[in-house]
């Protein structure tokens, strides 16, 4: 197959039978020297089915390299990991930490960032907007002053019908046999054994004997008396009761349907969204999404409200959302599998298969997916996880989820940093094992592109990953404006890491959630692709992160501004000498 610069040639050549194919590389290399590939190196192949790269580009010893920025756009954690573990040792599964009272100081946030936190999640159910603003400021300072790259996500509260509050600033232990009053009356302070519901009709249709479940099973109560709209309940399963907890009612083993006409996005949610936009957050996660309409509504609002590209994630946590999964995934920019609330609405035994199905659909449709809730739940109280929890984490990694998320483990638990390190170690080990066992997940190649350029970009990324895996290249370099091609490469889950160079900071922060992508903020030329390649490779080489003999694959989705500009939709393989 000749990897050419013409879209029409590419469209024809990409479907060539790879068993009789030779990959040829473009020889028009700006300021570079074409040299034969080294024999016996990583780019190799003999006999039938051989994949041959006829030429690579000599990167070392460039006479001219554009003057670069003093600081590369590579974050300090990725740089250190690359130095320590090499390209193939870099962790690809992203890590999300919920920020709460236990980890909101500058020192704790920095420790989480050093531990591998890619995204900081702020749950708008808890704390004040001033508190959240202060945390966002601290994270921005870490990024700007200490070279981290941590994105910020806010998580909306959702319909008030689901929320209870005991009034205390931290968690409260509900002991088995204790009696509690659940009321919609406005309370002052935090009376003992009293819980305030945020929705006046919270007890409509509820009967004596019904079961009230807190946060998907953190604690359980039985209704023993109904007085007006108030419920008096006895704790049947002791556990932690978090501030602004979510709840559900069960009767005879079945979920009690709540006939509420409250919208998915409440007035408080819209105020929180406006707050998030003004603070420049990177992601907004919508709670209790039952169909695609609220996702489209929010995306339209954000498009009109702000020039910044804020990604919208939908939380799958109800039976209704599962029934309309594909339309929700298609409308959103990503999915969070909220297993705690989801586990309340479907049988426990279905959770593993549902999680895998959601992950598969998201990957097919090229949307990042976060596996969340109760990953290391025991570490809210204890310094070590159960072996079953570690196995659960490893299974999510084996399913190629883009990200794993800590909730109470980091927000309120005393061992948040240790929990993060366990996620990091477990995910890195499972990734290595999967690669060694060649357990690359076979992806049903659902065609995403409609226009010819989009279909070409998709095919380029599919073939580029296959080439990268077969040739054993060290890294994939992608030059991107909006992150689309980096995302398409990530979708194929390549063995080598994907270094995504972009001049748009919003794109950089969004790519923080994509599996295997290390985003870098650099100045890119719209007209001289070879200058982009030469400059960025030389900058990384000067840092000692590239060494002679390393092989990188290069793709791009940048659009040239002049007709006679270098064609950008191509695959190149370059060897550092």
TrEMBL record:
| Pathway entry | Carbohydrate degradation; glycolysis; pyruvate from D-glyceraldehyde 3-phosphate: step 5/5
| Cofactor(s) demanded | K(+); Mg(2+)
Q: Known EC number(s)? A: 2.7.1.40
Task: Spell out the InterPro entries in the cross-references.
Answer: Pyr_Knase, Pyrv/PenolPyrv_kinase-like_dom, Pyrv_kinase-like_dom_sf, Pyrv_Knase-like_insert_dom_sf, Pyrv_Knase_brl, Pyrv_Knase_C, Pyrv_Knase_C_sf, Pyrv_Knase_insert_dom_sf
Which reaction equation describes what this protein catalyses? pyruvate + ATP = phosphoenolpyruvate + ADP + H(+)
Provide the Gene Ontology terms for cellular component: chloroplast stroma
Q: Per its UniProt record, what Gene3D superfamilies does this chain match?
A: Phosphoenolpyruvate-binding domains, PK beta-barrel domain-like, Pyruvate kinase, C-terminal domain
* Limits of the Pyruvate kinase C-terminal domain: 458-558
* Key words, A-Z: ATP-binding, Glycolysis, Kinase, Magnesium, Metal-binding, Nucleotide-binding, Pyruvate, Transferase
Which residues does the UniProt record annotate as the domain Pyruvate kinase barrel? 90-419
Name the Gene Ontology molecular function terms of this record.
Answer: ATP binding; kinase activity; magnesium ion binding; potassium ion binding; pyruvate kinase activity
Q: Spell out the PANTHER family in the cross-references.
A: PYRUVATE KINASE
Q: Belongs to which family? A: Belongs to the pyruvate kinase family.
**How does this polypeptide assemble, per the annotation?**
Oligomer of alpha and beta subunits.
Q: What is this protein called?
A: Pyruvate kinase
Lineage, uppermost ranks: Eukaryota, Viridiplantae, Streptophyta, Embryophyta, Tracheophyta
């Amino acid at each position: 197959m000749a990897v050419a610069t013409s879209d029409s040639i590419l469209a024809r050549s990409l479907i060539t039978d790879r068993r009789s194919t030779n990959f040829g590389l473009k020889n028009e290399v700006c300021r570079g020297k074409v040299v034969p590939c080294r024999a016996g190196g990583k780019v190799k192949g003999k006999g039938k089915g051989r994949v041959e790269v006829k030429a690579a580009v000599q990167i070392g010893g460039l006479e001219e390299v554009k003057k670069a920025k003093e600081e590369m756009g590579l974050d300090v954690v990725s740089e250190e990991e690359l130095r320590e573990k090499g390209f193939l040792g870099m962790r690809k599964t992203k890590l999300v930490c919920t920020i709460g009272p236990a980890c909101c100081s500058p020192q704790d946030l920095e420790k989480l960032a050093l531990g591998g936190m890619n995204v900081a999640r702020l749950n708008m159910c808890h704390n004040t907007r001033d508190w959240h603003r202060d945390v966002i400021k601290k994270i921005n300072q870490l990024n700007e002053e200490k070279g981290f790259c941590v994105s910020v996500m806010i998580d909306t509260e959702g319909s008030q019908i689901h929320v209870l509050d005991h009034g205390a600033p931290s968690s409260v232990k509900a002991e088995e046999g204790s009696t509690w009053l659940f009321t919609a009356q406005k309370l002052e302070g935090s009376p003992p054994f009293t819980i305030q519901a945020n929705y006046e009709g919270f007890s409509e249709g509820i009967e004596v004997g019904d079961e009230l479940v807190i946060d998907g099973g953190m604690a359980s109560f039985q209704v023993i008396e109904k007085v007006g709209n108030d419920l008096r309940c006895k704790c049947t399963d002791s556990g932690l009761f978090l501030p602004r907890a979510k709840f559900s009612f069960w009767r005879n083993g079945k979920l009690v349907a709540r006939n509420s006409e409250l919208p998915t996005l409440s007035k408080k949610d819209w105020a929180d969204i406006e707050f998030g936009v003004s603070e420049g957050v990177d992601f907004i996660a919508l709670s209790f999404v039952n169909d695609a309409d609220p996702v489209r509504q929010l995306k339209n609002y954000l498009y009109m409200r702000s020039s910044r590209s804020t990604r919208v994630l939908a939380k799958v946590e109800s039976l209704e959302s599962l029934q309309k999964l594909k339309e929700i995934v298609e409308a959103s920019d990503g999915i969070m599998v909220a297993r705690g609330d989801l586990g309340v609405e479907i049988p426990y035994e279905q959770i593993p298969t549902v999680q895998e199905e959601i992950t598969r659909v998201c990957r097919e449709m090229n949307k990042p997916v976060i596996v969340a809730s109760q990953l290391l739940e025991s570490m809210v109280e204890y310094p070590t996880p159960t072996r079953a929890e570690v196995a659960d984490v490893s299974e999510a990694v084996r399913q190629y989820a883009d990200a794993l998320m800590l909730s109470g483990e980091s927000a309120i638990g005393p061992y948040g940093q240790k929990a993060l390190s366990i996620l990091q170690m477990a995910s890195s080990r499972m990734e290595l094992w999967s690669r060694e066992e060649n357990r690359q997940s076979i992806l049903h190649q659902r065609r995403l592109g409609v226009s010819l350029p989009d279909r070409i970009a998709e095919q380029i990324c599919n073939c580029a990953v296959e080439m990268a895996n077969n040739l054993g290249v060290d890294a994939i370099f992608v030059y991107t404006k909006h992150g689309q091609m980096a995302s398409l490469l990530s979708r194929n889950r390549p063995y080598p890491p994907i270094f995504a160079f972009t001049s748009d900071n919003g794109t950089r922060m969004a790519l923080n959630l994509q599996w295997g992508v290390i985003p870098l903020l650099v100045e890119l030329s719209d007209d001289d692709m070879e200058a982009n390649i030469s400059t960025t490779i030389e900058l990384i080489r000067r840092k000692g992160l590239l060494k002679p003999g390393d092989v990188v694959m290069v793709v791009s989705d940048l659009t040239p501004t002049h007709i006679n500009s270098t064609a950008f939709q191509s695959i190149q393989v370059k060897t550092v000498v």
